[in-house]
């Protein structure tokens, strides 16, 4: 079996149904009454986002990300919005876990990340969301994120490197990883194994210093979400991967 066949087999094994009839989409309807009760008249909508919407999801990863859009009339601080949603989920027995901008729960056997955000004004889809690690807020646009990754030409490579991240236990936020892979492979051709290899080289040589910005807000520096020590751990893992004798040592 060639390296490309090996990686393609993994991608097939990890494929996710994102169609309109996908069972995981039912989570949106299941969670809506609780979210509606929490948000009241401020709820604008709940929609798939993150890896599920971008096409970069793997079966063994988070099943779905749901973006919770609140109207600008929700005047509580973004930190209070985030924490009150966490407490609501906790009171409902959902066993929530705080992440950076999302809250993770298990629901009906699915792994779900909930991202609460507030629309900045009625004339755009720009939203403000809470960044827990930095204890601050940032402006972003989920539709811009989805389009940037979907049309970045690197979805198979991103999916393989997300599996590598998960299997090696790395703290490498998904959007940061997606931006890094797109930066690494911009303008490059090659087979999937060559491109994944080149992305690992880029991570080894550039991640510690490369500045990654949000395509929806250049003031939001995504690479600031990790400390120098956290980046060093990813760089070390990439270096180890590049020293592997077989692809099975890198990703399974």
From TrEMBL:
Write down the SUPFAM superfamilies for this protein, in alphabetical order.
Answer: Nucleotidyltransferase (SSF81301)
Q: Which UniProt keywords apply?
A: Antiviral defense
Q: Which Gene3D superfamilies match?
A: Beta Polymerase, domain 2
- Organism field: Gemmobacter nanjingensis
Q: What is this protein called?
A: Nucleotidyltransferase domain-containing protein
Q: Which domain of life is it from?
A: Bacteria
């Amino acid at each position: 079996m060639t390296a490309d066949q090996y990686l393609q087999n993994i991608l097939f094994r990890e494929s996710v149904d994102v169609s309109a009839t996908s069972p995981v989409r039912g989570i949106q309807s299941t969670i809506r009454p609780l979210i509606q009760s929490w948000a009241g008249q401020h709820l604008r909508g709940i929609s798939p986002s993150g890896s599920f919407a971008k096409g970069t999801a793997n079966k063994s990863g988070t099943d779905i990300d749901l973006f919770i859009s609140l109207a600008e009339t929700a005047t509580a601080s973004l930190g209070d919005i985030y924490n009150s949603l966490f407490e609501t989920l906790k009171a409902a027995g959902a066993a929530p876990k705080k992440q950076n901008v999302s809250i993770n729960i298990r629901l009906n056997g699915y792994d779900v990340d909930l991202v609460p955000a507030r629309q900045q004004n009625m004339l755009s889809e720009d939203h403000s969301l809470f960044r827990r690690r930095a204890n601050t807020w940032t402006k972003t646009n989920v539709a811009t994120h989805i389009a940037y990754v979907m049309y970045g030409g690197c979805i198979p490579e991103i999916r393989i490197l997300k599996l590598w991240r998960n299997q090696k236990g790395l703290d490498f936020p998904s959007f940061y990883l997606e931006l890094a892979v797109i930066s690494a492979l911009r303008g490059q051709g090659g087979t999937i194994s060559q491109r994944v290899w080149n992305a690992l080289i880029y991570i080894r040589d550039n991640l510690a210093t490369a500045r990654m910005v949000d395509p929806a807000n250049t003031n939001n520096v995504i690479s600031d979400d990790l400390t120098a020590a956290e980046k060093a751990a990813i760089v070390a893992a990439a270096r180890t991967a590049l020293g592997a004798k077989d692809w099975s040592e890198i990703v399974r």
